[in-house]
């Protein structure tokens, strides 16, 4: 199969794009300062690009004849120029943009939210930052763990936000919930998310106080917005120790098609790495995606996409009942999802969106020789209208429908449930003064399974105190269904609730960002088991009656600093989080700090470009104080702590050109110092022996090469 994919890629390279025109230039303000990440587009047609950090832009188009090139950027008046294109020629045009009147005082409400968009000046990260952060492994969630407010939990799968466990965060793509946002779990081994940074033009991570457009998440959301039309027609391939992938995009006048195909086989990688688990069947599988995008002169847009994969693996994992032994965990996962998104511009101030999706996931598992299968699916739809009637006021109203089902088999017993959720929501943003913004919203949700509804008000506000700094606050109520393990066995507790209170200060320019945020989160009506002794096994079958008598809190402070200007060619950021949290829930006998919490987390990330040599370096150092673990002989519940966690990751990229091909060779090393991190301990049933919980591996090296018909931007690596 690898040869087939490689051959297909080489054949595609033979069909290089001819007869296209090249448009390029520089975008600056009236003082000659470059404007980075401005949007450059073609009026009434697809195509275009964004400027790089030096204000330069370049794109290729099949169009001929007279076209209009538009450029826009927040804080500046839009500009345009007309060009008469002839096939095969190159056109140079520079734009000088004027600051928009009144833009000095524009305010953006950001409490609890980190943006990573291509076209906003207030962002703290870009999508490419996600891909090139050392230690992130090219995974969106992996890179987001270098931001404050997120716990680094190496033995569990999910996004752990400000005291919440992995089930308390939602993954959103184009407004739709992704039910299986991570690869299927393997006990004791954290899994990657299913998202590639290249798929998205915008990434917004909310660690609390998020929009009333979304619900069913007590802690936070990861909101992803897919790319519109591809920037250009191109082909690329990626070959590494984990497999091979090929992707391509074809841009037409007002539409585009994209596709990817990949084959994964981690045998070469695990063959050279020293692992702490026995991967007797290293993961192997196929995945593919296809996407069609259409637009028109009205700038309406339609996106239809499909993704699918099949992966098989086998791992010896710790026996949660007897941690001195292991059990074979054999997994065969099949996953598929289809999405539709349509945006219609009613007029210059009003637009509507319609979105829908269907997804299915099936895990066929043999755990210690017994079946542990799980099958789930989700169908959903969303309709929304947004109107910006003036510069100072905008409003959104929407309706959402979701139906999902979950079926779990263990040994000879099968459990299942079905849930239907409906929601109405509205949100309005008002700027009574140019330096003051207020956003108020409310969301009503109804659960058919629990036969109960909830009304969740939310409020956020911001005051801009200077050209580059502002204060923000946010708060609200958030609800969520109980975890699968309770609903599957027939328990029907009421909705769980969390109240968020957030205060934020941010200073941000093109080259520097400083951000500090304090928060308090109150948990109410958490699910609590009423009988039985504490059992640390997360895979236990629930036999105790439950109610909603649980509660808890999380409070802390997050600090973020990014600097791209102080040292030439160096871009770095530092994030620090402190959290104090306790909760009484599940089968906890008393209120305590959960085992997935590290009270202190510190990340230092740096990226350095070595002049014209083509080398780019990225390094990440991560530190987390020791997590708590259950010691059955201890006097106090969950009072023992594991050793502190440290990790140094390094990535080296080398850019090269071979005739018409552009390439990047990359080598990534995780845990460069080979730190023997211990994540916690498990105890034998008598409690007289303890066994360390460790990462899947300590030090690892991963290498590969990317080839493309489009030039890589050095500032993106």
Question: Could you characterize the architecture of this molecule?
Answer:
This protein is mainly beta and 717 residues long. The protein has 2 domains: 2-101, Immunoglobulin-like (Sandwich); 113-716, TonB-dependent receptor, beta-barrel domain (Maltoporin, Chain A, Beta Barrel). It contains 5 helices and 39 strands. The strands form 6 sheets. The chain has a 22-stranded antiparallel barrel. A 5-stranded mixed sheet has the order 9-12-13-10-11, with no helix packed on it. Strands 1, 4, 7 and 8 form a 4-stranded mixed sheet that branches. Strand 22 (393-410) and strand 23 (413-433) form a beta hairpin. It is globular, with a radius of gyration of 26 Å. It starts with a helix and ends in a 9-residue tail after the last strand. Mean pLDDT is 87; it is low at 1-18, 101-105 and 116-123.
SSE layout:
Blueprint: H1 2-14, E1 21-29, E2 39-42, E3 48-50, E4 56-61, E5 65-72, E6 79-85, E7 90-92, E8 95-97, E9 113-115, H2 127-132, H3 140-144, E10 169-173, E11 176-177, E12 200-206, E13 220-226, E14 234-240, E15 243-251, E16 255-265, H4 267-272, E17 278-295, E18 301-318, E19 326-345, E20 350-367, E21 370-387, E22 393-410, E23 413-433, E24 436-447, E25 452-464, E26 469-480, H5 484-487, E27 496-508, E28 512-529, E29 546-563, E30 570-584, E31 600-610, E32 615-624, E33 628-629, E34 640-641, E35 645-658, E36 661-670, E37 680-683, E38 690-693, E39 700-708
Parallel strand pairs: 1-7, 1-8, 10-13
Antiparallel strand pairs: 1-4, 2-3, 2-5, 5-6, 9-12, 10-11, 12-13, 14-15, 14-39, 15-16, 16-17, 17-18, 18-19, 19-20, 20-21, 21-22, 22-23, 23-24, 24-25, 25-26, 26-27, 27-28, 28-29, 29-30, 30-31, 31-32, 32-35, 33-34, 35-36, 36-39, 37-38
């Amino acid at each position: 199969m690898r040869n087939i994919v490689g051959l297909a890629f080489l054949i595609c390279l033979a069909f290089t794009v001819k007869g296209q025109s090249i448009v390029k230039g520089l975008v600056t303000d009236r003082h000659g300062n470059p404007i980075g990440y401005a949007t450059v587009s073609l009026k009434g047609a697809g195509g275009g690009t964004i400027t790089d950090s030096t204000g330069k832009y370049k794109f290729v188009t099949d169009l001929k004849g007279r076209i209009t090139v538009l450029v826009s950027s927040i804080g500046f008046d839009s500009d345009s120029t007309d060009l008469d294109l002839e096939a095969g020629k190159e056109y140079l045009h520079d734009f000088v943009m004027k600051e928009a009147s009144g833009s000095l005082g524009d305010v953006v409400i950001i409490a609890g939210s980190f943006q990573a968009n291509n076209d906003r000046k207030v962002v703290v990260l870009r999508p490419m930052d996600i891909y090139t952060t050392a230690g992130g492994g090219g995974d969106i969630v992996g890179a987001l763990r270098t931001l404050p407010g997120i716990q680094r939990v190496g033995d569990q799968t999910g996004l752990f936000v400000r005291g919440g466990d992995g089930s308390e965060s939602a993954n959103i793509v184009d407004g739709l919930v992704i039910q299986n946002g991570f690869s299927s779990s393997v006990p004791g081994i954290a899994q990657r998310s299913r998202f590639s940074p290249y798929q998205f033009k915008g990434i917004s991570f909310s660690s609390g106080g998020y929009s009333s457009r979304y619900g069913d998440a007590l802690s936070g959301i990861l909101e992803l917005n897919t790319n519109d039309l591809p920037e250009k027609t191109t082909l690329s391939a990626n070959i590494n120790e984990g497999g091979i992938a090929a992707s391509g995009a074809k841009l037409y006048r007002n539409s585009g098609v994209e596709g990817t195909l990949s084959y994964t086989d981690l045998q070469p990688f695990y063959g050279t790495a020293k692992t702490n688990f026995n991967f007797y069947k290293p993961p192997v599988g196929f995945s593919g995606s296809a996407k069609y995008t259409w637009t028109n002169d009205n700038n309406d847009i339609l996106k239809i996409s499909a993704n699918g994969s099949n992966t098989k693996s086998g791992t010896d994992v710790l026996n949660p009942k007897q941690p001195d032994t292991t059990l074979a965990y054999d997994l065969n996962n099949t996953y598929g999802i289809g999405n539709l998104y349509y945006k219609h511009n009613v007029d210059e101030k009003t637009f509507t969106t319609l979105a829908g999706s269907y997804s299915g996931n099936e895990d066929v598992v043999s755990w210690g020789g017994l079946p542990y299968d799980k099958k789930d699916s989700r169908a959903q739809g969303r309709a929304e209208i947004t109107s910006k009637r003036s510069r100072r006021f905008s409003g959104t109203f929407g309706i959402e429908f979701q139906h999902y089902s979950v079926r779990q088999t263990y040994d000879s017993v099968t459990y299942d449930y079905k849930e239907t959720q409906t929601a109405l929501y509205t949100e309005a943003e008002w700027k009574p003064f140019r330096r003051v913004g207020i956003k108020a919203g409310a969301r009503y949700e109804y659960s058919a399974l629990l036969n109960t509804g909830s009304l969740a008000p939310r409020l956020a506000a911001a005051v801009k105190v200077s050209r580059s700094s502002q204060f923000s606050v946010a708060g609200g109520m958030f609800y969520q269904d109980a975890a699968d393990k309770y609903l599957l066995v027939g328990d029907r507790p009421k909705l769980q609730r969390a109240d968020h209170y957030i205060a934020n200060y941010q200073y941000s320019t093109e080259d520097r960002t400083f951000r500090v945020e304090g928060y308090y989160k109150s948990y109410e009506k958490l699910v609590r088991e009423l009988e039985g002794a504490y059992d640390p096994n997360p895979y236990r079958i629930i036999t105790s009656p439950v109610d909603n008598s649980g509660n808890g809190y999380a409070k802390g402070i997050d600090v973020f600093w990014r600097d791209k200007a102080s040292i030439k060619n160096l871009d770095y950021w530092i994030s620090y989080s402190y959290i104090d949290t306790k909760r009484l829930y599940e089968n906890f006998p008393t209120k305590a700090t959960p085992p997935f919490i590290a009270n202190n987390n510190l990340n230092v990330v740096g990226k350095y470009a070595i002049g014209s040599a083509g080398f780019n370096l990225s390094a990440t150092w991560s530190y987390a104080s020791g997590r708590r673990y259950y010691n059955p002989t201890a006097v106090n519940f969950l009072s023992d702590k594991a050793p502190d966690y440290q990790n140094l990751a390094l990535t080296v990229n080398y850019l090269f050109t071979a005739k018409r091909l552009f390439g990047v060779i990359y080598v990534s090393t995780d845990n460069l110092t080979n730190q023997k991190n211990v994540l916690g301990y498990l105890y034998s049933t008598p409690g007289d022996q303890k066994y360390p919980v460790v990462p899947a591996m300590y030090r690892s090296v991963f290498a590969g090469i990317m080839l493309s018909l489009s030039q890589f931007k050095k500032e993106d690596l």
